[in-house]
Model the fold of this input.
Amino acid sequence: MKRLLSTPFAVVLLALVALLAYANTFQAPFLFDDLSILLRNPHIRTLLPIGLSPRWLVNLSFKLNYQWHGYHVSGYHVANLLIHVAAGLLLYGILRRTLTRKPLRAAYGAVAAPLALVVAALWTLHPLQTESVTYICQRYESMMGLCLLATLYSFIRSVDAAAPRARRLWGNAALVCCALGMGTKEVMVVTPFLVWGYDVCFVGGSWTAPWRERRWLHTALFLTLGVLVMFELFMLGHALAAESGLTGGLSPARYLASQTGVILHYLRLSVLPRGLCLDYAWPAAAGWGAVWWQTLVIAALGLVSLWGLLRRHPAGFLGAAFFLLLAPTSSVLPVPDIAFEHRMYLPLACVLTGLVLWAYRLLVGRLRPPLLVGLAVALALTLAGLTFARNADYRSELAMWRDVAVKRPDNLRARIELAIALAESGQADEAARHFEAVLARIPPAARARFVRGEVDPGGFATMSSRFHYFRAHANYGRLLAGHPATRAAAINHYILALRAAPHHPVAETYLRDALREEGVAEPELEAEILRRITTYRPR
Done:
């Protein structure tokens, strides 16, 4: 039995079950942000320069993908799956060693390997992970998770090593993984704090022991934050120069209020993964009064986690780690989108670990070991089947956006993407109906302002009515421009798009092309565009 639970067996098993669960993804097309990050990004085509950004390491991996196989999508999916399996194996190694440490040894030490394998398998196979694996550009999340887990695993190996040389090697490995991780995604900022908390709860036994016994390693890990700060300052300078927005336009208090419902939704999906959605367009909470009971639940969970952490209880560490990992995207910093499932990539490990350990304590002694094994296998196969089914939604842009539109009918961004996908697949009539439905959902007062060209120079965020109005008209025009009988209507849509976004280069290009088709001579194009836009009167 010990051989079956050895590390080589775990490697083969996790890789095999992950391959089965994701077997139908290797031809899934580029989707949503993949188009701008990969297909329309000229920088991906050359290895150098690497570029200074908080995500340079993942961008480099995309460049390597392109060098090996261009835009053949299967190679990108293979790389994503390998990253995910490696992260699952690191999670297995972390849990296997943690369950044999003093705070947990008496309860779980004898079954550390099977419990670690169960948690790692459930985490690897959970359908909530599909957005971080099948959705190619969310390699940012999975590579960040890989680097964070590698940092924690290397730290554990360093404190477990008996020989000074091995201790130094593993400590250096933790430092390198942490530094590299600062080039994957900003969530990596929590890593030094997470490692410190692990040291307090499972190794040192007190809040001062990490500083007293491993001060140089912890100091070095915290210094890696300087790498991320440097990248962030560099990106901030570019954003300010371009006058682009850095947040979603909400106040920190309102964003935090919105996150109470989002976090409860994440927890529900962790236990009951039904209704998964690529693009929620989650509405902002009107205020604390609208989310009072969600706030009470999240506050209670947070306070219990903090109390447990202060007492150095393992469950307190799990709860604190869950909230810490979500803090960069689900607290007071208003990022443009309120909810995305890939943000649960690592927090899911905290939830599943707690549930599996609780279930084991509840069932051991009540069920015979073969039944426990059968239950774990059945649960893993169920999650694998759900993941396989969820991955079927990624088979085409049209299939995915139909799924999103059904689940979030008020998501205008998704309705526009669905209309575009329908237009590209030749279903013009249905595409037109969706464009009309989007425009009908724009508030009448806002539509009237856009038609008159009364727009704020800012306020063009990707979730704003103005942005949806612009995209619907611009793409509706593209749908109609190909036929002489509807080209005049297409020109009107382009004009309305430019009323909402004056001098937008893409819409101007569309309008210029349509006017050429209408017979406007090249020297007269610019004057004709200006005349059409300034004299247009809606019917």
Remarks:
- DSSP finds 25 helices and no strands in the chain.
